Amino acid sequence: MATINHLGIIMDGNRRWARSQGLSPQQGHKKGYDKLSEVGEWCLKRGIKILTVYAFSTENWKREKKEVDFLMNLLKKALTEDIDKFNKNGIRIKSIGSKERLEKDIIESINKIEEKTAGNSKRTLNLCFNYGGRLELVEAVREIVKKGFKPEEITEELITQHTWMGDIGDPELIIRTSGEKRLSGFLTWQSVYSEFYFTDVHWPDFSEKELDKAIEDFENRNRKFGGS
Fold it and tell me: How many of the other CB atoms lie within 10 Å of CB of 132?
């Protein structure tokens, strides 16, 4: 039976859920944030040690300023007010993405929470914020060139080491909610052998039962990794 150590989730559908409930996009995002805490607990009960979530893409800056500002404030709240909760539960927090365009106080909050939770080993939560898979590869290549590596020295391992994800390891399964069937730039380099599970359920309505359906679907697959 295949096991899952690292799960990736594209948390899609907060705004659609909000519309269906007659609520604002901001209320949808708040509900989605609350859902993440629940899903983290469900994953831990199932032995999933690493959870990587797509919280804000580099394309999301195109949204209305009011919505973007709310998402930034929500991130800051999570990074500053939830440190004790993360430490109590043994959760290590890592921010995955570009610091460009982020306000100074948010960058300081990111640095602080990463430092304060660095010693936690029960579970790792990777927040992909201001993240884009192609930008991640561009930045990795820039770093490799800057360090003066020769063409013949460039390997998959070298590129992996210079990505934002670094040596965290690739996700065995990636779940996307709300009906879309694409990755939208999520873990472009790391997802080459990931299994995908797409569900029509909007992220705020994602349930423990739906998580089990995704895991069961994954466990029933025959992962060959290019072999016979």
Answer: 20
For residue 1, the model assigns a pLDDT of: 52
Residues forming beta bridges with residue 175, ordered by sequence position: 9, 197
Mean pLDDT of the chain: 94
| Dihedral sign, Cα of residue 43, residue 194, residue 217, residue 222 | negative
Q: SS3 string of 163-204?
A: CCCCCCCCCCEEEECCCCCCCCCCCCCCCCCCEEEECCCCHH
Please choose, from the candidates 52, 28, 31, the residue with its C-alpha nearest in 3D space to the C-alpha of residue 189. 52
The per-residue pLDDT for range 29-38, each reduced to its tens digit, is: 999 999 999 9
* Positions marked active-site: 12, 60
* Predicted local confidence at residue 78, as pLDDT: 86
CATH number for the domain spanning 204: value is 3.40.1180.10
Residues 6+ apart with CB under 8 A from 217: 197
Lookup: tokens for 108: 């300081």
If you search the block for the tokens 């559908």, which residue do you land on?
13
- Number of domains observed in the structure of the chain: 1
Distance CA 29, CA 14 (A): 5
